[in-house]
Amino acid sequence: MEIEPTVLLAYAIIWTIFYAILSRHIAELSRQKWTTWVQSEESDDILVEALQAVIEEIEDKMHDKLEDFKASFFGSLGAASKKLDQSTGQGAIKALTKDNPVMGFLADYMMKRGGLDALQGQNTPNNDTQKTTETGKLGLK
User: Fold this and answer.
1) How far apart are CA 62 and CA 79, in angstroms?
2) N- or C-end of the chain: fewer Cβ atoms within 10 A?
């Protein structure tokens, strides 16, 4: 029995079209059944149980990321506060007035009100170099 090439080609084309339509129909039926099952009440417990490991992994990673963020945020905040205290001289004033709360209060008040602008400017390195270049070596004229 011999099959003509045109008949073989016709069978291949018909089978390809039939297979494409059949596979799409089966995929659509499967999708409909899956979405119906997922939206039903009985799937909730099964899905949560099946995905419990994934949920725990996500919670662990988020907890670790939150801890890293808190450590870096508060660490950088503390470093920035320390740097600000050093640059404005508040650290030295706080150290000098730590035994006397009234003096500490007054020093903080004066720093906040801007009454010690000259003291704040003395600790910056740019100000020191500017004074040296304007007045000569070691501040002598």
Assistant:
1) 25
2) N
- Compute the distance between CA of residue 27 and CA of residue 32 in angstroms, rounded to an integer: 9
- Of 78, 112, 70, 75, nearest in space to 93 by CA: 112
Question: Which tens digits make up the pLDDT trace of 23-62?
Answer: 999 999 999 998 998 888 888 888 888 889 999 999 999 9
Smallest Cα–Cα separation from 37: which of 46, 25, 28? 46
Q: Cα–Cα distances in Å, from 95 out to 75, 118, 123?
A: 22, 19, 16
pTM of the model: 0.32
User: In Å, how far are 8, 11, 74, 124 from 14, measured between CA atoms?
Assistant: 10, 5, 70, 86
